[in-house]
C-alpha cells in the first residue's frame, strides 16, 4: 500500500531521514529509542517557543492558545478512538504511567495488583512502589519466553475477583511483539469487572492502531518522541472512572483536572501535527470520509509496510541472506511471529552484541544494544543472554536500507 513514490513523499516529511547531523549519512534503525521527528513538529515547536503569552488571560493570544489546545485534544481523542474520558499532557510517558498507577492504587482499598513480566519498568516499578508503600499484593503474570509476549490466557489464569488494578504492555520495546490488548483487558474484566486497567502504549504508538473503544481500559499512555513528535512531554488518556478516584489537584482549582501549572501549548500543537500526519497518510492509501477512517487506513498501511521490512530482514532481500538464514543467529520471539511490530531483536553465537552494533555503526547503520539490565533483563536473562542487538524500523524505512543492514551483517557474522 505504501508505493515507492509514496515512500519518497513520506520520507520528505521527516527530519534527518538519511543523515545524522553528527555522524553524516546513516540508516536509522533505532526507532524504538525514539522515532524520527516530523518537519511539521519541528516547525511548530519553534513557533510556539517564541510566544510569550499564557492560557487563561483575557487577550487574543491567550484565547488562541486555549483554542489550539482544545483542537489538539479533540484530534488526539479521535486518534485514540477514545470512548469519553480526557486527554492531557505531562512530563513524559514514564511520569504519566506513574501518575495513573498512583491514582489507581491509592484510590482503591486492598485487593490484588496485577501486571506481567514482559512489561517495561515504567509500569512495573510504579506498581511495585505503591504495592510496597500500601502493603498490597502485587502479582506478575509470566510471559512466554519463546514468543516474547504475554497472552490473554495467561492473564485469565492469574486474575482473581479481588484484582483492583492491572497493567498491560501493548508492545514490547525489547522483543517487538504486540499483545492482544482487547483480549487481555476482556480476560481481566471477565473476572474482575471493576478493575482499573492501565496500558503502556509507548512502543506500540508508531506501529499500529490504537482503539480504546475496543480495548475497554481506563488509562493509556504514549511518549510523543516515539511517535514522530519531540521530547519533553507525554500524552495520556484517562477514563472518567479513573478521574473519579481523585487525582491530586490544586485546592479550589477545577474539578476532574489532571494538569498542573501552565500547559505547553507547543506540546499539544506538535501532537496535533502527529494526528494530522496520520490523517494525511490515510488519505494517500485510500482512507475514508472521516478523520478516524483515515487514521485507521494509515495504521493498516503502516503495519503492512513494516511487515515487509521485517520479513526482508529475517528472510533476505535480493541475493543477501536474512538473519534467519545464518547458523548461530537467534531471533528473540522467534522468526515467524505474527505479533512482531517493526522490530527484530537478535543475538549471535560467538559475536558480542556490542561488537555487532559497533560494526553496523561504523558503516552508517544505527542500531542499539539491549543489555540484561533493569530495562531488558526481564526478557534477556531468561534466555541466558547478557545482551542482544535491537533493530527497530518504522514505515519511513525502505527495503534498500534493510539491504544495507544485511550487507554489513554478511561481512560481520
Automatic annotation (TrEMBL):
Domain named Aminotransferase class V is located at: 28-405
Q: Which UniProt keywords apply?
A: Pyridoxal phosphate, Transferase
User: What GO molecular function annotations does the UniProt record carry, in alphabetical order?
Assistant: cysteine desulfurase activity
Q: Might you give the EC number(s) for this enzyme?
A: 2.8.1.7
Offer one Pfam family short name for this entry: Aminotran_5
Q: Does the keyword Transferase apply?
A: yes
Against InterPro entries, the record matches this protein to: Aminotrans_V_dom (IPR000192), PyrdxlP-dep_Trfase (IPR015424), PyrdxlP-dep_Trfase_major (IPR015421), PyrdxlP-dep_Trfase_small (IPR015422)
EC class name: transferase
Q: Which domain of life is it from?
A: Bacteria
Q: Which PANTHER family match?
A: CYSTEINE DESULFURASE
- Protein name in UniProt: Cysteine desulfurase
Give the organism, scientific name. Pseudooctadecabacter jejudonensis
- Gene name tied to this protein: sufS_2
Amino acid at each position: 500500500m505504501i508505493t515507492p513514490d509514496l515512500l519518497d513523499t513520506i520520507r520528505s516529511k521527516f527530519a534527518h531521514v538519511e543523515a545524522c547531523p553528527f555522524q553524516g549519512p546513516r540508516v536509522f534503525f533505532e526507532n524504538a529509542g525514539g522515532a524520527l521527528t516530523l518537519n511539521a513538529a519541528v516547525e511548530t515547536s519553534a513557533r510556539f517557543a517564541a510566544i510569550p503569552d499564557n492560557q487563561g488571560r483575557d487577550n487574543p493570544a491567550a484565547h488562541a492558545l486555549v483554542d489550539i489546545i482544545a483542537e489538539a485534544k479533540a484530534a488526539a481523542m479521535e486518534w485514540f478512538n477514545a470512548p469519553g474520558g480526557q486527554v492531557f499532557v505531562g512530563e513524559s510517558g514514564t511520569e504519566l504511567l506513574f501518575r495513573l498507577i498512583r491514582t489507581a492504587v491509592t484510590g482503591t482499598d486492598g485487593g490484588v495488583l496485577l501486571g506481567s513480566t514482559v512489561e517495561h519498568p515504567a509500569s512495573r516499578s510504579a506498581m511495585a512502589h505503591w504495592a510496597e508503600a500500601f502493603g498490597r499484593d502485587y502479582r506478575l503474570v509470566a510471559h512466554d519466553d519463546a514468543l516474547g509476549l504475554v497472552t490473554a490466557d495467561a492473564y485469565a489464569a492469574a486474575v482473581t475477583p479481588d484484582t483492583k488494578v492491572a497493567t498491560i504492555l501493548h508492545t514490547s520495546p525489547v522483543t517487538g511483539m504486540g499483545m492482544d490488548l482487547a483480549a487481555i483487558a476482556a480476560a481481566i474484566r471477565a473476572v474482575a469487572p471493576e478493575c482499573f486497567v492501565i496500558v503502556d502504549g509507548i512502543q506500540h504508538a508508531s506501529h499500529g492502531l490504537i482503539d480504546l473503544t475496543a480495548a475497554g481500559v481506563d488509562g493509556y499512555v504514549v511518549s510523543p518522541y516515539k511517535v514522530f513528535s519531540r521530547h519533553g512531554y507525554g500524552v495520556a488518556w484517562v477514563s472518567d472512572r479513573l478521574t473519579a478516584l481523585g487525582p491530586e489537584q490544586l485546592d479550589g482549582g477545577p474539578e476532574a483536572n489532571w494538569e498542573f501549572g501552565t500547559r505547553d501549548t507547543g506540546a499539544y500543537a506538535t501532537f496535533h501535527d502527529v494526528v494530522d500526519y496520520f490523517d494525511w497518510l490515510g488519505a494517500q492509501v485510500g482512507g475514508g470520509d472521516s478523520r478516524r477512517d483515515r487514521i485507521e487506513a494509515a495504521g493498516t498501511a503502516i503495519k503492512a509496510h513494516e511487515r515487509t521490512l521485517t520479513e526482508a530482514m529475517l528472510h533476505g532481500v535480493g541475493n543477501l541472506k536474512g538473519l534467519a538464514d545464518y547458523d548461530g543467529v537467534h531471533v528473540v520471539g522467534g522468526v515467524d511471529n505474527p505479533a512482531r511490530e517493526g522490530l527484530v531483536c537478535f543475538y549471535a553465537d560467538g559475536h558480542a552484541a556490542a561488537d555487532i552494533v559497533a560494526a553496523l555503526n561504523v558503516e552508517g547503520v544505527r542500531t542499539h544494544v539491549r543489555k540484561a539490565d533493569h530495562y531488558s533483563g526481564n526478557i534477556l536473562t531468561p534466555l541466558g543472554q547478557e545482551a542482544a542487538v535491537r533493530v527497530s524500523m518504522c514505515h519511513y524505512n525502505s527495503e534498500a536500507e534493510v539491504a544495507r543492514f544485511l550487507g554489513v551483517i554478511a561481512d560481520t557474522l
